[in-house]
């Protein structure tokens, strides 16, 4: 095998892996119990290619979840640029995060393994950094008082991934976000 052939195969394998993860993201969001053959079909690959990359269903679930969180944690600047209000950007960012996590809850035991906990733990730092950037923008805008810890805000906003994934849940989420931002307008009280 020549170096050129090997490089071409590696690029094709990388494209296939991304296609599989993207298809899994879409299909798991619709139905956490979707078959892997449906994921392979949506990705445009054979079952053998899917299983070569992801030998077990749990491997694919973790890869899709990790990909979603990595993609989201790098979008803080993009979301801020899209909105004239830092607060609106922050709300959109958290609503996207909550949608990813609601899907995660529907995936069951696959995301309660030791490997899954490593993926979740690895996401904490980048997620905290993204929230810190959004908090700084909101502080500069005056919609959040200075001094709030991004980790505290993540914990506070965690209600978003517990609301129902329907219109009523979305309305409840909007009310709760408004209540959170109302509280964040005041400086944190010392302990």
List keywords for this structure.
2 domains; Tet_transcr_reg_TetR-rel_C_sf; mainly alpha; HTH_TetR; transcription regulation; single chain; 191 residues; 9 helices; 0% strand; Arc Repressor Mutant, subunit A; DNA-binding; Tetracycline Repressor, domain 2
SSE blueprint and pairings:
Blueprint: H1 3-30, H2 36-43, H3 47-53, H4 57-73, H5 76-82, H6 86-106, H7 114-141, H8 150-157, H9 167-184
Helix pairs in contact: 1-2, 1-4, 4-6, 4-7, 5-6, 6-7, 7-8
Structure description:
With about 190 residues, the chain is mostly helical. It has two domains: about 1-55, Arc Repressor Mutant, subunit A (Orthogonal Bundle), CATH 1.10.10; about 55-190, Tetracycline Repressor, domain 2, CATH 1.10.357. It contains nine helices and no strands. One of its GO terms (molecular function) is transcription cis-regulatory region binding. InterPro entries: Homeodomain-like_sf (IPR009057), HTH-type_TetR-like_transc_reg (IPR050109), HTH_TetR (IPR001647), Tet_transcr_reg_TetR-rel_C_sf (IPR036271), TetR_SbtR-like_C (IPR049445).
Helical percentage: over 70%
Q: What's the CATH H-level superfamily name of the largest domain?
A: Tetracycline Repressor, domain 2
Assembly state (oligomeric) = single chain
Instruction: Give me the CATH fold name of the largest domain.
Output: Tetracycline Repressor, domain 2
CATH class of the largest domain: Mainly Alpha
Question: What would CATH call the architecture of the largest domain?
Answer: Orthogonal Bundle
Taken in chain order, the helices and strands follow as: HHHHHHHHH
SS-based structural class? mainly alpha
The strand count comes to 0
Q: Using the alpha-carbon principal axes, give the shape.
A: elongated
Protein name: TetR/AcrR family transcriptional regulator
Organism: Amycolatopsis iheyensis
GO molecular function, one term: DNA-binding transcription factor activity
Domain HTH tetR-type: 14-72
């Amino acid at each position: 095998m020549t170096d050129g052939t090997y490089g071409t195969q590696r690029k094709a394998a990388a494209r296939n892996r991304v296609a599989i993860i993207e298809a899994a993201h879409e299909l798991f969001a619709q139905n956490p119990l979707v078959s892997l053959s449906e994921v392979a079909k949506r990705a445009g690959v054979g079952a053998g290619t899917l299983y070569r990359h992801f030998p077990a269903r749990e491997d694919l679930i973790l890869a899709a979840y990790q990909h979603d969180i990595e993609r989201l944690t790098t979008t803080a600047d993009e979301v801020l640029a899209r909105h004239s209000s830092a607060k609106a950007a922050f709300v959109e960012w958290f609503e996207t995060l909550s949608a990813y996590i609601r899907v995660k809850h529907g995936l069951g035991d696959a995301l309660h393994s030791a490997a899954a906990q490593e993926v979740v733990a690895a996401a904490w730092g980048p997620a905290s950094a993204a929230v810190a950037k959004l908090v700084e923008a909101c502080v500069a805008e005056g919609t959040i008082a200075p001094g709030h810890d991004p980790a505290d805000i993540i914990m506070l906003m965690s209600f978003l991934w517990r609301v129902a994934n329907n219109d009523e849940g979305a309305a409840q989420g909007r009310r709760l976000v408004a209540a959170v931002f109302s509280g964040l307008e005041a400086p944190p009280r010392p302990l």
